[in-house]
Specification:
The complex is a heterodimer of chains A (about 140) and B (about 110). With about 140 residues, chain A is of the alpha+beta class. Chain A is built from three helices and four strands; from the N terminus they run βαββαβα.
Chain lengths: ~140, ~110
């Protein structure tokens, strides 16, 4: 199976100590590397205001992970772990490789088009030149 | 009959005159409505994402999504924002993802 790119975001309670959050992320990263996945990015966004109340909390500590994996089972395991861990109040996994692929395709197409444009503008000028010569003859 | 016939032609002519005049007046008179129409179409909205050449709308950038969400949390329709159909589709997906992870609200500011 081809490699897939996933975004994994989870929110912890704002009152959880930083060590515990580090511990959770470490275990997740360990799980990823052990199962043949690759960690792309790990970002701690810090405490942010939640758009709505989650588990009676108005704020939450956001952690963002980006990872690559060929196994869907890995995501299942990660989500199970997040579900089990108490400080985590919300998590979201999004598969992004297809969108990235689409984006690259669009970028390529645009490059091709921009390469074509000068050529396109040239032919009309040549055609008008031909007409003038025909009129003259 | 003849009298009626003679009477009739002038009658249509007489009424037809004013309408014709109205029609002739129409173009200048029609000007204002046209101007009004122009006022309607004056602002041709262009897709913000197309002008910026955005190929991927990131659900994590809340500041980018916020202008396309009403105060109540509704996604603004295309006719309001002028977003093209392609980008509106992506935008919808991005907003829904952001909502799922509490970056955007489902219903207003609580």
């Amino acid at each position: 199976m081809e490699e897939r790119l996933y975004d994994l975001i989870f929110i912890c309670r704002p009152d959880t100590p930083e060590e515990e959050i580090n511990k959770i992320t470490a275990t997740l990263e360990h799980e990823v590397t052990e199962r043949g996945g690759k960690m792309e990015k790990t970002e701690k966004w810090g405490t942010r205001k939640l758009a709505y109340r989650v588990a009676k909390q108005r704020e939450g500590f956001y952690v963002y992970l980006s990872l690559r994996s060929t196994q869907g089972e890995l995501i299942k395991e990660l989500e199970r772990r997040l579900k089990v861990s108490d400080p985590v109040i919300k998590y979201l996994t999004v598969r992004l490789d297809e969108e990235i692929k689409r984006q690259q395709k669009l970028v390529k197409r645009r490059e091709r088009r921009s390469a074509r444009r000068p050529r396109k503008s040239a032919p009309p000028a040549a055609a008008s030149g031909g007409q003038t010569t025909a009129a003259a003859s | 009959m003849a009298e009626e016939a003679t009477q009739h032609p002038p009658a249509p002519q007489a009424p037809s005159g004013p309408p014709r005049r109205d029609r002739r007046d129409g173009p200048p008179g029609g000007g204002p409505p046209r101007r009004g129409k122009r006022q309607f179409f004056r602002k041709k909205k262009v897709c913000r994402f197309c002008t910026d050449k955005v190929d991927f709308i990131d659900y994590k950038k809340v500041e980018m999504l916020q202008p396309f969400v009403q105060e109540r949390g509704k996604i603004l329709p295309r006719r309001m924002t002028g977003t093209c159909s392609k980008h509106q589709r992506w935008l919808g997906v991005a907003i829904k993802r952001a909502r799922n992870i509490a970056l955007l609200s489902f219903s207003g500011n609580r």
